[in-house]
Design brief:
Layout (H helix, E strand, L loop, with lengths): L2 E8 L3 H12 L5 E4 L11 H4 L2 E8 L3 E7 L13 E6 L3 H12 L3 E8 L4 E7 L5 E7 L4
Parallel strand pairs: 1-4, 5-8
Antiparallel strand pairs: 1-5, 2-3, 3-4, 6-7, 7-8
């Protein structure tokens, strides 16, 4: 069964925001990666390399609050568009089905693809203007 989490986008304050959320909710980050941690053939400016690429904080019974700073080359966050619905699936086939269905008549911003963080991942804005992320985590070897 797919699960949905909230994914927050920040211009440059993701780390400060998530440290604040952690201080309020408690717990530990289950993931914290910077843009400088990802493989790249093009070196990033130091200020971009220090930005948060992905952070995840478990909250309550199975909920996960996730977020990132906007990556280099992406437009600044516009108020009202700083979140996405993130669907985690149980298989690539399930990811394909949900991605195809939900993105119909929408705008795909990143097609589903295998990623360096060992997932099958894609993003789009649906026909109603909501931003989505679809993710399948490959089993850890």
């Amino acid at each position: 069964m797919p699960s949905i989490s909230t994914y927050l986008s920040f211009d440059d304050s993701c780390e400060a925001a998530f440290n604040f959320y952690k201080s309020v909710f408690g717990g530990e980050f289950i993931s914290f990666q910077r843009f400088g941690d990802m493989p790249s053939e093009t070196p990033l400016a130091p200020e971009d390399a220090a930005k948060v690429m992905h952070v995840a904080l478990p909250i309550g019974n199975g909920s996960v609050l996730m977020g990132s700073d906007i990556g280099p080359g992406y437009p600044k966050v516009i108020m009202g568009t700083q979140f996405s619905l993130s669907v985690n699936t149980e298989s690539e086939e399930d990811a394909d089905r949900l991605f195809k269905g939900l993105s119909a008549e929408g705008v795909v911003t990143m097609p589903l693809q295998k990623t360096f963080w060992n997932a099958y991942f894609g993003m789009f804005t649906d026909r109603f203007g909501f931003q989505w992320m679809v993710n399948y985590d490959y089993p850890q070897v």
